[in-house]
Amino acid sequence: MRTGVERPRRTTLEEFLSNGDPEIAKVYLAIAEGATRLAGELPFQTGMAGGTNSSGDAQATLDVFSNDLFADLLLETGVVGEVASEEMETSRRASGDRDHALSVAMDPLDGSSNITTNSPLGSIFGIWRGRLPQSGRALVSAMFVTYGPQLTLCFNFGRSVCQFVEMRAGPQSGEFVLAAEGIHLPEEPEVYGIGGDRVKWTPRVEEFVRSLEARGLRLRYGGTFIGDYNQVLRRGGIFAYPELQGKPNGKLRVLYESAPVSFLTELAGGSSTTGKGSVLDIHPKALAETAPCYIGSRRLVQEIEERFSTH
Ligand code: F6P
Ligand code: MN
Q1: Domain spanning 13-181: which superfamily?
Q2: I need a labelling partner for 254 at 20 to 30 A (CA). Which of 7, 134, 150, 271 fits?
Q3: pTM for this one?
Q4: What would the DSSP string read from start to end of the chain?
Q5: Ligand 1: distance of its center to the CA of 124 in Å?
Q6: Which ligand is nearest to the CA of 195?
């Protein structure tokens, strides 16, 4: 089919990364390869593995597959000394003395309860230097993958937040090409998505959400952190997995989920909080430690802190 539209060749991921830190480039390219392979595996693996992960979540076969795939690819780069994952009790380490190498904490398949419904899925990676756990402030880089209608990579290149998309037709088919750079999280809020059962929200969370609704923000919630967050990144607003009654630390894991995403958010001009201060300032003591998180447009995040400081 002819489109009648000129489609100029676009910058590839390899070309783009050749101007930056070579170690980070190796990690990003390993993740890109894993993302393509994982996307190809989606139609084949839709069942449950029968076990649970370190947080007690039921594991899908794709959780196990994605964990092994990314862990192997990352350790094979030769620049990663430690991989910690939501799907493993303890880190996997490269052989030899690698205390100063890069460490990666990952959620290899975010939103796995959405596999059977063909809703968006994600993968999240935080990259540090030295052993884990560390605070989000110490992050060197972060990347997330969206498996939605398009396969995309979103990451920081220095202080710029960029997005690459996998081409599926045309002369660059099979390559990741530049889709956006210098991404800025819009300050004017449009959408919100809040996790957890509404009946378990604390009164102050409930009140905040009512105020968002009163201001005309649109609810957009699919139950995959990365899918729900990515809408906030591109449209402005707020994503939260809040404190819940009986679960004051929420659900999202700091190292694997909320810190890497908060890191990219702050580089994109947005902000994050636990209700008391930036998610990036948490010093997790355990790999799978959780904390409540509220991530998005700066003014809304600041409003949370103000509301929570008074009650
Ligand atoms: O990784 C945990 C997760 O699957 C996130 O992707 C998502 O934001 C959250 O759980 C959804 O939880 P709930 O069903 O409690 O809203
Ligand atoms: Mn997750």
Answers
A1: Fructose-1,6-Bisphosphatase, subunit A, domain 1 (3.30.540.10)
A2: 150
A3: 0.97
A4: -----------BHHHHHTTS-HHHHHHHHHHHHHHHHHHHHTTT--SEEEEE-TTSPEEEHHHHHHHHHHHHHHHHTSSEEEEEETT-SS-EE-SS--TTSEEEEEEEEETGGGGGGT--EEEEEEEEESSSP--GGG--EEEEEEESSSEEEEEEETTEEEEEEE--SSTTTTSEEEEESS----SS--EEEE-S-GGGB-HHHHHHHHHHHHTTPEE---S-HHHHHHHHHHH-EEEEE--BTTBTT-S-BIIIIIHHHHHHHHHTT-EEESSSS-GGG---SSTT-B--EEEE-HHHHHHHHHHHHH-
A5: 13
A6: 1
